[in-house]
Amino acid sequence: MEITTEMIKELRATTGVGILECRKALQEAEGDYKKAVDYLRQKGMAKAAKRADRDASDGVVELYSHGDGRVGVMLELNCETDFVARGETFRKLAHEIALQIAAASPLFVTEDDIPADVLEHEAEIARKRSVEEGKPENIIEKIVEGRLRKYKEEICLMQQKYIRDDSLTVKDLIMENVGSLGENIVIRRFQRWELGEHLAD
Questions:
Q1: Residues 25, 28, 32, 34: is their CA dihedral positive or negative?
Q2: S-S: 102 plus which of 66, 119, 122, 129, CB 3.0-4.6 Å?
Q3: Any idea of the CA torsion for 186, 149, 153, 60, to the nearest 10 degrees?
């Protein structure tokens, strides 16, 4: 199949990858746009993994207000250089992540940030629930493990499904941008406020 300039332009606009790589991806995918995006995504992630240990000390603090000021988010997103930090792609990514935080209410960036006592408390709840549901004793720990995994996916930002495309996690979204921008990107910290929360405590 002939790979046209239009096809390359469209793929480039979506992925932010160079012309030659877009052409190669379309050739590999025999002109199939979706397969070409997947090909570049996999390639980008391979590149991204190599960049994960590089220092990311530049970036932006993104402020986002949602629902007429009912929810507010502050996010620090880091990259390696001021040049990338000022770019539209990086700024858009920071905005998307802030939007994710507003909509999905994560509590931690990664599962490594969850305190051990919080995990133990959740495990205990899952264990008691399994017993009450009459699950056989020999599979209870497996059930607890599964429920803890689901809990982590809900409360850890990096493991959450991306609100605009649930075939991606937030980690996948970041890795795609690492692949196209060529720099390590790190979510340093975030804070989410909701009007009236904790007032009943």
A1: negative
A2: 66
A3: -10
Residues paired with residue 59 on neighbouring β-strands, in sequence order: 78
List the domains of the chain with CATH numbers: 5-51 (1.10.8.10), 58-110+156-194 (3.30.479.20), 115-154 (1.10.286)
pTM of the model: 0.68
Sole residue written with tokens 């991606």: 168
pLDDT tens digits for range 40-95: 777 765 455 555 566 677 899 999 998 888 999 999 999 988 899 999 999 999 99
Q: What is the DSSP string of 56-121?
A: --EEEEEEEEETTTTEEEEEEEEES-HHHHTSHHHHHHHHHHHHHHHHH--SBSSGGGS-HHHHHH
The partner residues of 37 in beta bridges, in order of sequence, read none
Question: In the predicted model, what is the mean pLDDT of residues 29-35?
Answer: 88
Residue with tokens 């397969």: 35
